[in-house]
Write a structure and sequence with these properties.
By secondary structure, the protein is α+β, with helices and mostly antiparallel strands. The chain is 41% helix and 19% strand.
Amino acid sequence: METDLQIVSKSFVPNLGSEESVSEEPIDEDWITRFFSMAEDVSSEDMQLFWGKILAGKIKQPNSFSLRTLEVLRNISTEEAKIFEKISHYCVRWNQSIFIKYSEKYFDNKGLYYNDFMLLKELGIIHDVDSSVINIGTENGFIYGNYFILIKNGERKGLDIIDFTKMLNDEFKITEYTTIGKQLLSLVNPVYDESYFKMFACSILNDVNGNRLGYRTAQYGNLIKIDENGIIKYGNLVDVPIE
């Protein structure tokens, strides 16, 4: 019978991909020792797949997974991993950040509750709910799945100077992933939800009382690619359909 460690070691092979994707940089010996020491105790089939993906990712990119990330994964139960994976369906990317736009009403309807987000915080995967902010400024672009979303602030006709100043300093609350959380996200394959896409756009277009901000627009298009310089290329933009 195969040991847990042998199963983990075999599971990384399908995730390794082509030889061209493998880095020539050596992996830190201490990391390898710690990895196999932790992986030998993993008995859950689902968790063994995660550990196999980590080994493959580390071989491809030696800086991809830290020892702290291994420690977090080591202490995650199978049920906790399922919650992590389910919440990953709602990740939005902005510059170097990955975050969730939390809405109690929306997530309650999806069977995800505030305590689930607090669990991820306790595990070191996300920061506190709504503890980070984005200043929209003149315009900002976001990526959700295969979509690029462009939010713009523009002068509304008759907008007074007080509202215009508020517009440029408007802060949008988000729940951000930690460095460990971002590393672990590479292990899952999110299924993106169009209803969340609309909720996210609506939360930016409306104020805290649910009233539409007349000076703000939201458009989206298909994400084509992000080049080596971080330049985002996307298709023709159309208005986000807000009901």
